[in-house]
User: What shape does this take?
Amino acid sequence: MQTVDLIIYARWVVPVTSSQQVLHDYAVIIKDSRIVALLPKQEASQQYTAPVIHDLAEHCLIPGLINNHAHSAMTLFRGLADDLPLMTWLNDHIWPAEQRFVGDQFVEAGTALAVAEMLRGGTTCVNDMYFFPEATANVIDQSGMRACLGMLVIEFPTNWARSVDEYLHKGQQLHDHYRHHPRISTAYAPHAPYTVADSTFESILVNAEEMDLPIHMHVHETAGEIAQSVEQFGLRPFARLKQLGLLSPRLIAVHMTQLTAEEMDWCSEAGVHIAHCPESNMKLASGFCPVSELDKRGVNITIGTDGAASNNDLDMFAEMRQTALLAKAVSQDPSSIPAHKALEMATINAARSLGLDEDIGSIEIGKFADLVAVELNSVETQPFYDVVSQLVYATGRDKVSDVWVAGKQLLKQRQLTTLNETKVIADARQWAHKIQQAEQ
Assistant: This one.
């Protein structure tokens, strides 16, 4: 009998591998933060023992969900200035509030609130883009969650940096500090084509290739963005990025609601990854990402929530469902983006876009034990025919009972183990009071 660190028995295990199999009455065996075996429960009980054993008789075990586009600290702006056009919302409310309030303490409080929400919803990794990423990293580090942190670059000065050179320098410092961290990685995060100059893109591209990092950016979010680019550069934004050499497997293009057939072909040919944010796109009336057409072209599609200021939640179960449903509605094809594909987008596809697919994104031997247990024995999930269908179309984040990252339990029977929930809520309320007073 071999002793390991942790054994999790589950009624169903959905590994999210190419076979799309569902394993019944299986065990996941964990040692030194990684999965060392995946085998039937009876065999596991004969071969392994552990000081901690979980028997989840009415649960499904899935890989941790990966939120591939978020602005975590903006959770403190949840519900601020809702139901306005994007540029009105940004220019008249969000950007002034950021200028007034955003700093280390704001970002730490907002990120703690976001991490608490994401963990309770089964998200174990976030691809984040925001100012003061050092403060975000502190919370991620202490919470035990996993993150890819954006090294934000924008042409105009903010509370975090005053010039492009300072943005790049601070990003380099962040990367250097966390380059060997087991759960924190980095990506270049130029804000968008309309806020970044050609010369800055050229510097980012050189650095990203030297450091072998992803480039995470808002692209083709609105029709107005396209018109502005055509007027200023004589090119649509994606064509401009192509001309600059930015279309490659490094690029994670966020939103992508305004695409021609030729641009979709470019995505396929260059290996560009898409971070689809369906709920944010709908709320801001930005348009619809042509997910079905991109999928037919073999483009790697992932899912993000965007920030809670424009969503207004960080609920990856809801995003999976909306991804599948919107794809069907837009393509007028009910077979478009079946449930298993939506789950792949929220797990292994996102891991691939971040260059982390050797370590996370599926339940396989050798990968980190980033796992989520979903209770499927409630009224809302009965009767039962197809596990993955239930996960995507019928299950909510409230059914997430337990979460592990690298084998460490961060959510235990709906209770956070590394964050003080009372303090997280109290801090959020204090910031909301300050922000609300400023808005009046």
